[in-house]
């Protein structure tokens, strides 16, 4: 069946006209025309509050976007996702990450899968308790005190983020993360640890990812070098994978392997056994609360009408700027140190899911898909890239993520952080005209001509769209809801663009070429040379190793 493209939807043309008419509109004027704009453009769900009043969005454009979502059948698509329809059409699979946090199966046909989820959760819980109660010992009899998750991409970003974000919930086990195949990553982590008291979780859905396997081999040798025998290794290694055979070949027995299923995509897998490291860090009850927060967002996504639906609304805003205002970027700025890795997590979630150029049916798309997502924890960015946000030539919508309280107990310092977040959001809205800049310069004692000359450099256009997602505190529940919110937003945008958000063929070719180059670096002679530039770099590498 041919995919429905964004441009096929009747509201598309009307939105294009509306967007054109709004290109010189003023968000501040919207506030005066619409006295209840903040109330009307605020949504609440699962402990999160989303304020989208500071957008280049008139009431008419907002209604038209809702119509667009209705025409695309987003509500029915949400049901199809949550009920396990095989939406990943290139791999003929469902994308059932929501089942990982469900207490009940949405359909009786999904009961078997849910049972597998629950029995795996029981095993995760056992490991969490065993480790946190100091009941697991290494080869020398020393109690395990440190856990190292070795994984990359979806087998790293999610658990690392959760562990970081919920550090105030940590118990006695310290969790570490190694992803990069650069030996410096593993080396610097191991330098702090003792092999006798360290447990490695080899986290790889495929158990074929070279980076992870190489790091795992080095870790294995590190434990052996410390005096462990081969038979002792199972005391130090767990595997999370859907490829039990490969894990067994590595030497990890079945009872130390926790399963993952092909209906869970890597970037959607933090809710599964992939989350074991962070579950160990925060304890099982907190991990359950994290799942519950996501489940609340799933329920909201399923039940709320489009106009009240937070993931749908965020997706409509993404489409609005990407496809009607040619925005190429999207920035996410968490005003919370623990959430500093949120942009990295969202990069994989959104750009690996929706960085696609063909529709589900293989047709080339006549429009752009996923914008480039980036960001960092506030307030650091204010002293680097916010300059571009305020005065650059590009349109870059921003999501501010704003917890209202801190776990540090340092409320006064936190107040300063909140003031900064609110100030940035407001400054993007207000900007400053050249006249205002000039007046400020005159006040500072500059002469009229000096002020006149300098004023254009101080002027800021303002009117720059931003969303504020606030919540009381970063808790397991709000974090679960926040990540599920962005997952569903990503899905909705993929549906509106007509693409499959659940495959990632674009990463495969680079892996194959990487293996070819590795064999050449290792000295294998091959008939056909590579391109001259790569050949020259390989030669330079050989010279640097003093190989020739
Ligand atoms: O969990 P693994 O099978 O080791 O995969 C790790 C990562 O690598 C792949 O290249 C994919 O791009 C990611 O989606 C995946 O999360």
TrEMBL record:
GO terms of biological process kind: gluconeogenesis; glucose 6-phosphate metabolic process; glycolytic process
Major site of localization recorded for this protein: cytoplasm
One Gene Ontology term of the molecular function aspect: monosaccharide binding
InterPro entries in UniProt: G6P_Isomerase, G6P_Isomerase_C, Phosphoglucose_isomerase_CS, SIS_dom_sf, SIS_PGI_1, SIS_PGI_2
Signal peptide: none
Alphabetical list of Gene3D superfamilies matching this protein: 1.10.1390.10, Glucose-6-phosphate isomerase like protein, domain 1
GO cellular component term, pick one: cytosol
Localization in the cell: Cytoplasm
This protein's record includes keyword Cytoplasm: yes
Record pathway: Carbohydrate biosynthesis; gluconeogenesis; Carbohydrate degradation; glycolysis; D-glyceraldehyde 3-phosphate and glycerone phosphate from D-glucose: step 2/4
HAMAP family found in the cross-reference section: G6P_isomerase (MF_00473)
Name of this chain's protein: Glucose-6-phosphate isomerase
Organism: Sediminihaliea albiluteola
Gene encoding the protein: pgi
């Amino acid at each position: 069946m041919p995919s429905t493209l964004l441009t096929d939807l009747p509201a598309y043309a009307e939105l294009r006209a509306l967007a054109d008419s709004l290109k010189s509109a003023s968000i501040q004027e919207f506030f005066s025309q619409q006295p209840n704009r903040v109330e009307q453009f605020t949504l609440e769900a699962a402990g999160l509050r989303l304020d989208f009043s500071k957008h280049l969005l008139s009431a008419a454009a907002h209604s038209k976007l809702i119509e667009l979502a209705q025409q695309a059948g987003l509500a029915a698509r949400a049901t199809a996702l949550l009920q396990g329809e095989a939406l990943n059409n290139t791999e003929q699979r469902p994308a059932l990450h929501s089942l990982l946090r469900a207490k009940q199966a949405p359909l009786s046909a999904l009961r078997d899968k849910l049972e597998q989820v629950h029995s795996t959760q029981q095993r995760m819980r056992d490991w969490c308790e065993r480790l946190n109660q100091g009941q697991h010992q290494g080869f020398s009899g020393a109690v395990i005190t440190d856990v190292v998750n070795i994984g990359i991409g979806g087998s790293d970003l999610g658990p690392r983020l959760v562990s970081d974000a919920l550090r105030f919930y940590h118990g006695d086990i310290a969790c570490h993360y190694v992803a990069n195949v650069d030996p410096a990553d593993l080396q610097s982590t191991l330098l702090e640890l003792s092999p006798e008291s360290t447990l490695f979780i080899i986290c790889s859905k495929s158990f074929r990812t070279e980076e992870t396997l190489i790091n795992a081999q080095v870790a294995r040798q590190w434990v052996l070098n410390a005096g462990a025998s081969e038979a002792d290794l199972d005391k130090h290694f767990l595997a999370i994978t859907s490829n039990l055979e490969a894990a067994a070949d590595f030497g990890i027995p079945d009872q130390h392997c926790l399963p993952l299923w092909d209906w869970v995509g890597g970037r959607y897998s933090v809710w599964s056994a992939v989350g074991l490291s962070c579950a160990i860090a925060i304890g099982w009850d907190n991990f359950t609360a994290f799942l519950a927060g996501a489940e609340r967002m799933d329920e909201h996504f399923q039940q709320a009408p489009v106009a009240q639906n937070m993931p749908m609304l965020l997706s409509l805003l993404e489409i609005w700027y990407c496809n009607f205002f040619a925005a190429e970027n999207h920035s996410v700025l968490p005003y919370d140190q623990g959430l500093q890795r949120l942009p990295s997590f969202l990069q994989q979630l959104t750009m690996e899911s929706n960085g696609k150029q063909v529709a589900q049916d293989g047709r080339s798309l006549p429009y752009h898909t996923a914008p480039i997502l980036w960001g960092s924890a506030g307030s650091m960015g204010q002293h680097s890239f916010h300059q571009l946000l305020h005065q650059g030539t590009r349109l870059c919508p921003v999501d501010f993520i704003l917890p209202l309280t801190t776990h540090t107990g340092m409320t006064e310092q936190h107040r300063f952080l909140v003031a900064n977040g609110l100030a940035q959001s407001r400054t993007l809205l207000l900007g400053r005209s050249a006249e205002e800049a000039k007046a400020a310069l005159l006040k500072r004692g500059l002469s009229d001509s000096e002020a006149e000359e300098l004023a254009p450099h101080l002027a800021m256009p303002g009117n720059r769209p931003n969303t504020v997602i606030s919540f009381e505190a970063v808790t397991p529940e709000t974090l679960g809801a926040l990540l599920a919110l962005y997952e569903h937003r990503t899905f909705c945008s993929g549906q509106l663009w007509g693409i499959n958000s659940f495959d990632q063929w674009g990463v495969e070719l680079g892996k194959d070429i990487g293996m070819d180059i590795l064999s050449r670096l290792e000295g294998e002679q091959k008939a056909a040379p590579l391109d001259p530039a790569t050949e020259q770099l390989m030669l330079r590498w050989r010279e640097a190793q003093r190989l020739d």
